[in-house]
Fold this sequence. Notes:
The protein is an alpha/beta fold and 413 residues long. It is 42% helix and 15% strand.
Amino acid sequence: PLPMRPDIPTLLHDVFGFPGFRGVQEQVVSRIMAGQATLAIMPTGAGKSLCYQLPAVALEGCCVVISPLIALMHDQLRAAQAVGIRAASLTSVDADWRETQDRLRNGDLDLLYVAPERASGEGFRNLLRAAKIALFAIDEAHCVSEWGHDFRPDYRLLRPLLDEFPDVPRLALTATADHHTRDDILVQLGIPREGLIIAGFDRPNIRYAVHPRDGLPRQLSDLIAGQTGPGIVYAPTRAATEKLAETLSKTGRPTRAYHAGLDPQVRAANQAAFIASEDMVMVATIAFGMGIDKPDVRFVAHAALPKSIEGYYQESGRAGRDGEPAEAHLFWGADDFARARQRIGELDPLRQQGERARITALGGLVETGTCRRAILLRHFGENPPPGCGNCDNCLNPPPSIDATQTARKFLSA
Length: 413
Ligand code: ADP
Ligand code: MG
């Protein structure tokens, strides 16, 4: 398991305004924070930039981003500066070179964008020698490969630069997934095969199911009785976590609780026990799971509505990382929506609209009589087939009249 600094979720939320990681972002960021060379293959729109921007903010020193087009760089630069990241570029159209160089040397930059022809030059290398570099991010990394659709010979000159800073992790990013290109990028940029991470939002081995809450302790006990492997139950509060853990331990399964309010030693011990276990049930707040790599989690259950579809996807996605069949169960009730509305009402008005949209999207997920996976994947910009054959609605199509009007009623109220 890779360590993940506890401030990472806070930065993700406070700096970037995202409720959670998407898809493999968490995995990529974990690797980078642990200093490991990585090639991330993620579809367009999957959120590649965050994979280096977040470590750039979290790590001491500057992240050097190599990007092939000035227009692309300047788009990203503006977006980064808009959320308060200290970012600059060194291109032919930038007038403030001296200032940028000073900021780099003074440790006053999180992100520096350069083109490959600049990055590979001796002058730039001299500059880097006088600065603290946290990360090299090679965007559009398929440009390094003659197999790729956009070969740029200048990308081939990057390797000596990367190798001169052996302690600085390198992260290559591209949306091009064909395996010749992929293998070539690994070789050209000196990234070990185990550093290859391929996204795609679908998790076909996870069976999704949604249930109206109706005597939750019994529902969860039944669920656990039908499962043999390790599982995580996400509960909404610390108190609920401990209470549920106690109730569920009566099923005879080893059960522990995890939340940020526990004594750090107890927390670490519970986490270690879970990672080593083949049948433990961990009842946790969403503080649990970040950066924990346990491939054989067989089920994830949510005792209440999560905060967003991103959160749900991320949390449920901790099941079945080994590719074997796994289950995701979401229990919800009308009171979850009532509580969400109350919580939103107390927020800064600027944030209310976004939060309301998140809850509405969740309403769509729990209410639907159609494929759950299709709803999740469409939320992430994919274009899935209408039925997956591996969710509750596909396996047991509900009667065509929609019996669950509760969510809608609470949303429109
Ligand atoms: P890519 O480079 O992979 O095509 P970008 O980095 O441009 O994707 O990100 C695509 C969009 O996804 C951006 O609008 C970005 O703000 C958004 N995004 C990235 N990460 C997240 C996240 N964890 N949650 C929500 N939105 C995200
Ligand atoms: Mg930094």
